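Co-fold these.
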Amino acid sequence: MRIRTIFTVAAGVSALALLTGCGAADMTKQASPFANAQGAKTVTLSVQSWVGAQSNVAVAQYLLEHKLGYRVDTVQVDEVPAWDALSQGRVDAILEDWGHPDQEKRYVTDKKTIARAGDLGVTGHIGWFVPTYLAQQHPDITDWRNLNKYASLFRTAESGGKGQLMDGSPSYVTNDKALVNNLKLDYQVVFAGSEAAQITQMKQFAKEKKPFLTYWYSPQWLFKKVPMTEVKLPPYKEGCDADAAKVACAYPHTPLQKYLNADFAKSGGEAAAFLKKFKWTTEDQNEVSLMIADQKLSPEEAAKKWVDSHPSEWKKWLPSTTHR
Amino acid sequence: MATLTVPTSRTAIPGILRNRAAAKLLALAAVAAVLVPLANSHWGSNTWPHTLTVDLSHPLATASNWVIDNRDTHPLFLYGFGYVSNAVVLAVRAVYLTLLAAGWTGVTAFGALVAWRVAGVRLAAGTAIAFLTCGALGMWVPTMQTLALMVVAVLTSVAVGALLGLAAGLSDRLDRALRPVLDTMQVLPAFAYLLPVVLVFGIGVPAAVLATVVYAAPPMARLTALGLRGADPEVLEAVESLGATARQRLLTARIPLARKELLLGLNQTIMMALSMAVIASVIGAGGLGDRVYQALASVDVGAALAAGIPIVLLAVVLDRVTAAAGEGGAQPRTIGWPYVLAITVAVALATRLLGTLDWPSGWTLHIAEPVNRAVDWMTAHLYSGVPVVGGTADWAGHFTTWILDPVRGGLQWLPWWSVLLLVAALAWLIGTWRTALTAVLAMAAIGVLGVWEPSLDTLSQVLAAVAVTLVLGFAAGVAAARSDRVERALRPVLDVCQTMPQFVYLIPVVALFGVGRAPAVAAAVVYALPAVVRITAQGLRQVDPAALESARSLGATGRQQLWQIQLPLARRSLLLAANQGVVLVLAVVIIGGLVGGGALGYDVAFGLAQGDLATGLVAGAAIVCLGLMLDRVTQPTERRARKGA
Amino acid sequence: MSTTTTTTPNTPVFSVDGLWKVFGPKADRIPADAELAALDPADLRSRTGCTAAVRDVSFDVRKGEVFVVMGLSGSGKSTLVRCLTRLIEPTAGTISIDGEDVRAMDKARLRELRRHRAAMVFQHFGLLPHRTVLDNVAYGLEIQGVGKSERRERAAEFVTKVGLEGMEKRRPGQLSGGQRQRVGLARALAVDPEVLLFDEPFSALDPLIRRDMQDEVARLHREEGRTMVFITHDLSEALKLGDRIALMRDGRVVQLGTPEEIVSSPADDYVREFVRDVPREQVVTCRTAMRPASPQDPANGPAVRPDAPVAEAIEAVARAGAPARVMDEGKCVGVVDHAQLLDVVAGVAASTGAAEAADSHAAAAAGSRAAGAARVGAAAPRKRGQATPPPPRTSPEDV
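Predicted complex below.
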C-alpha cells in the first residue's frame, strides 16, 4: 500500500517534470500570464502610484500602441517591489525612478538582470512645503529655524499637542522622522498612508486656506492647483544623508532614471529602443499630469491630447524606419 | 414533580452563572496576585518590557535577502516553488486565452446559459446584464483578467479545501487538529496574508493566486468537514446495515448528503477569492483590482467606481448562482449541459467571423466624470461649516480628540500585565479557559514581537469602530427586524456595501474626514455595518414566535417585547454579530493604514512598499495575534460546542 | 407448554447467548467480573463510569417467527438489535446466524451478512434524500453491485409490493411519513434477506398510519413467512405482531414468551404493571382459560377453537347462555363457562403501583423519539421517586 503510494507520487512528479520540459523551473524568468495574448507583442510597464509616473506611462503606452503596434499592459507596483518585478521580467520597464542605490547595486551591478535606460529628462526634488498663502502671511516661516514658533498653527487632532508634518505614501523615500528629531522640532510626523489621501487632505486644507506643512516633491501637478513654497532645511551636502538616523539636511535634487529588464533591453526590438529614447521635460510631464489628475481625463485621453499637440517631441523617440 | 423543578432551576441559572463568573474572576485574581508583583518587580514599566522582546527584524531581513539572491539558482526554488509558480502562470494564461477567444459574446452567453441551467430565467438575464455592464464600463479586459485569476484560484481553493475537509471529515484526530487552524484563518485580515507569499514568489500573479488560495480555501475545508460530519447518523447506519463498504458509503451517501454544505463552501470560497483578488492588486494581481488601485492613486473616485462596479456585479452574480445551485434540486430542467457548451461555441464562432471579439470601443459609458462631480459636491458641502451640526471634518476632529485619543491613551497607560489580565478576564467570562489562554498568549506574543505600542494603537481604533458599528448596526437591525419595508429598502444597500472592494471606501472617507485615524474608523464602520445589521435582523426575526405571542397575549407593548423577549432570546445572534463586526472592522482598520490610520496597517503597507519584509512580517504577525485575541474574546462558548454556527 | 407457532424449526435463525454490550471505559472487564456484572445500573455507573445497555441476554429467533423485543426507551432494545449484525460491536457473549458465529466474521463476511441475510428498517427511515424512491429501494442492490437495469426492475417490483406504484420518481422529501417507511420497508425487502430487523419502525408515525403499517407487516409475514425481529416500545404493537415477545428492562430480558404467557402469567411486578391495562380476553386463548371437560357438561352448546381468544368464547357463551366447548380437530379438549371467563377478564389482582405503570407508559411514548439519539446513555438509571432534576443549562440552546 505504502509502496504503491510512493510509486504513484514518484510517477506523478516525473510526469510533471517531463511535461514542463527541462528539470528546473526558474520562476524569475516568467512573464505575466496576461502578456502577449492573441499574438500581439506586449510590453508591460510599471506604473507607480503618483501621477507623474502615470503620465510617463500614459504617453509611452499611447505611442507604443498607436504608433508601434504593441499591446501595453500596466501594473501598479510600489517602487522597491517594482525593481524586483523588473528583474524577474514581470514588468519590462520602469520609466521614473527616484534613486534606489541598494537595488541598483544588487540588480544592475551584481545580478545584471536590469539595465539602465538613461535619463527621463525630469529632475526630482523632495522637500517640506507650506502653501504660498501661508508663506505670504508669515514670510519667515520658510526657514526651518522658525518652524517651532509656528508649531501651534499646524496642530491637528492627529498630531496631539505638536505641529503636524504630513508625510505621504509609505513607499516614498523619507527622512522626516529623523529630521524632526535631529533638528529638535516640535512636530509630529503624521503618515497619510498614500499619496491619494495626502493630496485629498491638502486640497481640503487649501480650499479653506488653512495652514499646513507637508512633505512634497516636484515635479508635481498639484503645485498648479495649490501653490506651495518650500521650507528651507539645512543645505544638502554629498553624503549628509548616509546615516538614516542622523540625517539633518535637505533632500537632494535627483535626475530621474529609466530602467529596463536586461533581456527586454536586448531583445525588446522597437519597443525597447523607443523606451530608451523616451525623454521629456518637467513641463511636459506636468501638462499631462494636470490633465489626468485635475481635469480627470483618462490617462489615454490625456496622452492623446499631448501627443497631438507635441508631434516634434515624440517623433524623435520613434525608430526612423517606422512611419505609421 | 415536573412543575416543581422548573421554577427552581430557572431561578438557579443566574445564580449559578453569577457564582461561576465570580469563581472565574476569583481564580484569575488569585493567579494575578501571585504573578503581578513578580512581573512588576522584574519588569516594572507600563509598556511591554524591552527585555521580553525578541528582535526578529535582522533574521527576517537576512532571510528575505537570501530569497532574492537565490531565487534563480537554489534548487528549492528551481525544483519546488518554481513549478508551483509555473503551473499557476500556465493555468491563468490558459483560462485567460480561452476567455479572450470566446470573446465578449461567448463569455456572456456562457454565463447566462449556466445561470439559466442552475438558477432560472431571472438570474440568467441578470448575469447577461452584469457582463454587458462590465463591457459598457470599458472594463472588459480587466474583468476577464480578474475572472481568469479567479477561476484558477477558486478551483485550486476548492480542490485544496475539499481535500482538507475530506480528511477532517473522516478522521477525528485531523479534525481536532485542523479546526482551530481553519477557524483562526477565517478571522484574519486579508492583508496579513500578502507578505509571506511575496517573500517567496515575488510580486506578480503567482503570489496573488496563492495568497488568494490561502485565504479562500479554509471556508471550503470547514464546510466540507461540517457537511461530512453533519450527515444524518441514521442514514449512515442504514447504509452500513445494507453492507456498504467504506468507499461506497462515502461516494453514495456522505458526499451527496453534504451537497448543500459543499455548495455553500463553494459560494463562500468564491466570495472570499473575489475580495482577495482585489486586495492582491497590491502585490500585482492585475485586473479589476489593479484598476481600482490605480484610480485611487490619482484620487479618481469615479474611475475607481467604474472598476468597482464590475467587481460588485461579478460578486452578486456568482453569489446568487452558486447559492441557487445549493438550494436547487427541485427546479424544472431548463437546458442540458451539452447544449450550453454548443451554444457558447456557436456564439463565439459567430462573433469571431464577424470580427468583433473585443468589446466595441464605441459602446463605452463614461461614468467617472459625473461621479467625481457628485463626490466633489458632497465633500465641498459637507466637509466643514455646515450650520448647527458642524462639518464632517469637525466630527472627525472631535471623534479623534474625544474618543480615539483617550482610548489609545488609556490602553497605552495601562501597565502591560493589566492588559493581559483584562484580556484573560473578558475571554474567560465569555468563553472557556481555553479561549482565555489563547487570547492571552496571542496578546503576549504581540509584546514579544516588540510591537506593543502600535498594536494598542490599532486596538484602540478597532474598539472605537466596533462600538460605533454595534450601536448603529443594532439600531438598524432592530428597525429592519420590525419593519419589512425597512428591510426591503436596506437589503440592496447592504449587498452592495458588503461586496464593494474595501479600497473603494478609502478615498471618499478621506475627502469627508481628512487624513488620520478617523477616516480609517469610518471606512471600517461602513464595511462592517452590513454584516452586523443582517445578523441582528435575522436573529431578531428568528425569535420563537410562540414566546412573542405569549408576551403579546399578556399585553406587552412593542418596546417591552423588544427588550424583554426579542433581545434576550436573540442573545446568541447578537454575540455573533459582535464577533463578526470585530473581525470585519479589524480587516479595514488595517487597510486604514493607507489613509493615515498608522499603527500596524501602516507598517504592513510600509513593508510591502519598501520591500522591507522584516517590518511587514512582524506587523503582519502582530495583526494575526490581534485578530486571534479579538476573536477569542468575543467568541461565545456555544460556537465551539456547536458545530459550525 | 402451549405454543402458537405452527412450525417447529430445528436450528434457530439467530441464536444469542450471554450477550453483553457495555459502553464506557474498559468495558470488557464488566461482563467478566461477576461482582461488577451483578451491580445495578446506577452503582455500575458510579463505580466504573460504564453503562451496560445489554446485560447477559440470551434468546433464539426461530425460522419464520416474528420475534418482538419490547421495552421502554433506555431498556437496551435498540442496542440489542444493532448487535445482531454488529452495527454496534457487542462486548461479550455469542451471536450466531444459522449456526455461524457472527462475532468471528471478518469484514467481508460481515458485509455479506448485511447484504444478503439481514436487512434493517429504521425508526426515522434512513432514506437518502437526494435519490428517488426507486433508487432508494434499489440502493441495497446497488451496494451489492447489481447492474442498473436489473436492480431498477427488481426495485420497481417491491415499490409495487408496498403500494407505492406511481411514486417511483419522487424524492423522500415529497412523501408522507408512512410512505417513507414503506420505502424503507421496500428497500429492506428488495435484497431478499433471510431476516428482517425492525427498529421501532412505526413509532414516528401517526396512530392511524401506524395501524396500516402494522397490518402491512402482518400481511407480508403471512404471505412470505419471512423471519422478523421487531423492536418496539408499544405493547399493543408487540401483542399484535409478535409470535414471541422478549420484554426488556435495564438491559435484561425480564420475560420471554408468547403474548398470552406474558399477559396471563407476568414474571414479576414490573411485567404485571406493564400488562395491567391489556384487555386480557383479546390475548388469552381458550386453551389457557378452559377447564377439563366433565361428564356433566352438555354435549351440544357452542364450540370454540383452542386458539381463539377468550373474547370469542364470551360472545358465544353470552349468546347461548351455556358453557362453550373447546374443540380441537373434532375432539372436545375442554370447557369454558362463566367462571373461567370472568377469571380471565378480572385477571391478576391490581397492583399497588398502578398509577406509576400508566405514568411509565406516557414516559415511554415521550421518550421514544430520543431513543435513537440517546442510545449511549440508554441504560442510565430510571429509578422513580428519586429522579434528580436535569442539570441547569447555562447556554440558551433553545433559542
